[in-house]
Amino acid sequence: MPPKTKAKGVKAGTQKKKKNLGADVEAESKHRLAVLEKELLRDHLALRRDEARQAKASEDRLRQRLQGLEAELERAQSEGKAVYAEMSRQYRALQEDSETRRRQLEDEARGLQERLEKCQREAAAAQGEAAQALRERDQSLAQLQAHVADMEAKYEEILHGSLDRLLAKLRATQPQWDGAVLRLHARYKEQLRQFGLNPLDL
Length: 202
Description:
Layout: H1 2-194
């Protein structure tokens, strides 16, 4: 029995050590986490300070730029008054020139309108003449086509008559030619036999 008690005591001591070890690990983890958070906060704070410095520098630059723009605006306003006076003078002169030019253009437009109407009348007359010329041309063309067709029919009739007469002459002379051909054929066969050749072998 006593050995069993000792075994129980060893187990209890081991469990206590494990608990203490777990608590140390947890404390170490919390400490590391706190250190990391502190470093992150320090970095974040440094970043914010840099941003604040940059914002301050940008504000100073913008303020200087604004002052320069205000001075430039004042100069522009003073120059603008002088420019406005000059532009008003030029505008009045331009109005006078425009009025003169408008009257000239109206006169030109009236002249061009009259010329356009005259050209339209001439174009209508020319179109009528062209239509008449086309009608006359079509009529002449139809007459020429009829004449050509008539001549073609006459030539065809003459040609057929000539061919018929030629064929009749050929038929009339064909027996004479056939006799002459047979005589020549017989003579050449005889000459070949005289030379010792058989005409059928050739």
